[in-house]
Automatic annotation (TrEMBL):
Originating species: Catenuloplanes niger
GO molecular function, one term: DNA binding
Pfam families: YbaB_DNA_bd
The protein's name in its UniProt record: DNA-binding protein YbaB
Organism superkingdom: Bacteria
UniProt keyword terms in alphabetical order: DNA-binding
Length: 123
């Protein structure tokens, strides 16, 4: 039914597919580990506010320097919010970097991860 060359060619293709699947799985696991450990810390321009956000953008830490007491509550609140947004932008950059270095930003997996983080696709 099969000639020897056709059968050998089919076996090689199956082996290539399997290797491709295993490589994609390895890269996906690497990305998962990198994202799970991701934490970004950013200081405000004034240096009075420092925030850390975790891998999902959640606030993990907030540090206020003593000099913040000389500012109004409204100014302090705005500086905290700006710093959190800055940290989330830095997080986005780190997520996109990790995706690019592992599964590829152009891959279906990469696009799905970026979309899952609520970020636009990288340009």
């Amino acid at each position: 039914m099969f000639e020897g060359l056709e059968f050998d060619s089919a076996i090689r293709r199956i082996d290539d597919w399997q290797e491709g699947f295993e490589e994609r799985r390895r890269r996906a696991q690497e990305l998962s580990g990198r994202l799970a450990d991701l934490c970004v810390t950013v200081s405000s321009e004034s240096g009075l506010v420092e925030v850390s956000v975790g891998s999902r953008g959640e606030l993990r830490d907030l540090t206020l320097e003593e000099g913040i007491r000389k500012r109004s509550a409204a100014d302090t609140a705005q500086e905290i919010l700006r710093t959190v947004e800055s940290a989330k932008r830095a997080l986005r950059d780190r997520v996109q970097e990790a995706v690019t270095e592992t599964v590829g930003a152009d891959s279906a997996s990469g696009r799905a991860v970026i979309a899952g983080y609520g970020f636009e696709e990288p340009r």
